Amino acid sequence: MANSNGRDLVVVAASAGGVEALRSLVAELPGDLAAVVLVVLHLPARGESALAGILDRAGPLPAAPARDGERLRHGHVHVAPPDRHMLVRDGTVRLVRGPRYNGHRPAADPLFLSAALEGGSRAAAVVLSGTLDDGARGSSVVERHGGVVVVQDPLESAFDGMPRAALAATESAESLSVKKIAGWLVRQSRTPVAEGPVRDAAVEREIARYLLTADSGTHEGQLTALSCPECGGPVYETVAGPETYYGCRVGHAWTPKGLASGQAEAVERALWTVILRLEERLRLLDRMVKRAESGGRNHSSRRLRRDAEETGRALETMRMLQNSIDGAGDDLVSHSGP
Question: How far is CA 13 from the centre of its chain?
C-alpha cells in the first residue's frame, strides 16, 4: 500500500441491516480515495456472497472479494468472504478460517484488532447497522492506539446494537449518518498522522493465534467456571484496561454480551433436543397404552397412562422454558446498546 500522511487504513463492520448501509457508504466515496477499505459483514458460513458485486456497482471504487496475500492498495474495497476472518498483516490481506469470534466468521473485532496493530494512528474504524456488540472491542483498541472511530447514527440504523456498543466502548467516537461518514473518511485520509505499526503484546498474541503462529494449547487469563458455547471447552477471562473478553483453549473468543448470547443459543439448542425426546417418549407411551387397553391389561394401561401424563407435564414445562429463552434472546438483541 502506498505511503500516506493521512489515515489510509479503513475497516468497516456491519451485520443485520448492513447491506444497504454499506452500499450507501461506498456510493458516496470518491474514486481517488487515498485509503484502502476493508469490509466485514456477518455472513452464513455456506454459499456465496453477492456483497462484493453490490458494492462494486454502487460507486466508483472497485470492490472485490478479498484474496489471501494480496497487497493493500488505495482506492480499493476488499470484502471478507464467507467463513473466513479477514486480517491485515505487513501490508497484505490475510484470510484465515480461525475460531469464530462472538459466534461469527468473518467477524469485525479480529479485523479491527489487526488494523490497530498494522496502522496505529493511520486506522479508521467504521461501525454500521447490526445487533449485539461485534466491533466494539476492536473500536476501543483502534482508538487506544491513535486511530479514530465513527459509527452510523443509531437513529438511522436499521439495528442499532453495534453502533451503540461501539459508542459505549470508546471515548471519542463520532456518530454520523452514512452519507456524512463518507465525507468524514475523505477528511481523515487527508489528516496528517504519525506513520507505522504499534506494539501491543496482548493483541499481537491474539492475532498470532488466528494466523496459527502461536501455541494454541496455552491461554492467558483467569480460568472461569464457564464453558464455551461453541465447543464446550473451559473459558478464560482476560481483563485489559477497560476491556473484558473471554476465550477458550481452542481459540473461540467472545465479548461478555456475545458470550451471553452464545450461551442463550446453546441452551435453546439443548432444550429443543429435550423437547424432541419428550415428544417421542409421549408418542411411544400413547401406543403402549392403546396396546395394553386392547389386550385387557388394565393395570399396565393405568401405569402407562400416568407415565404419559407426567411426560406431558414435563414436555409443557420444557416448552415454557424454551419460550422464555427465546424471549430473553430477543430482549438481548433488541436492547444491545447502553
Answer: 9
- Is the C-alpha dihedral spanning 154, 189, 191, 123 positive or negative? positive
* Active-site residue, from 8, 133, 134, 160: 134
The amino acid that residue 175 corresponds to is S
Instruction: Tell the residue number behind the cell numbers 507505522, with chain if given.
Output: 196
Last residue of a domain, one of 237, 254, 271: 254
Instruction: Note the pLDDT tens digit of each residue in 41-54.
Output: 998 877 678 999 99
Give the three cell numbers for residue 268: 435453546
153 assigned to active site: no
SS (H, E, C) 169-227: HCCCCEEECHHHHHHHHHHHHCCCCCCCCCCCHHHHHHHHHHCCCCCCCCCCCEEEEEE
For residues 209 and 204, what is the distance between their CA atoms, to the nearest angstrom? 9
Distance, CA of 279 to CA of 157 (rounded, Å): 42
Range of the domain at 236: 215-254
Catalytic hit among 42, 76, 104, 219: 42
Q: Are residues 94 and 163 in the same domain?
A: yes
* Whether residue 42 lies in the annotated active site: yes
Active site residue 134: yes
DSSP 3-state of 152: strand
What is d(CA 101, CA 258) in angstroms, rounded to the nearest whole number?
9
Residues 17 and 44 in one domain: yes
Same-domain status, 68 and 124: yes
| pLDDT reading at 72 higher than 50 | yes
Catalytic annotation, pick one of 4, 15, 175, 261: 15
Same-domain check for residues 232 and 84: no
Q: Taking the model in full, what pTM does it have?
A: 0.75
| Nearest by Cα to 177 from 24, 39, 63, 37 | 24
Q: Rounded to whole angstroms, what are the CA distances from 260 to 142, 226, 256, 263, 334?
A: 24, 11, 6, 5, 14
Looking at the structure, do residues 182 and 310 belong to the same domain, yes or no? no
Residue 123 lies in a domain: yes
User: Peptide bond before 106: cis, by omega within 30 degrees of 0?
Assistant: yes
Q: What is the pLDDT of residues 268-292, one digit of tens each?
A: 888 889 999 999 999 999 999 999 9
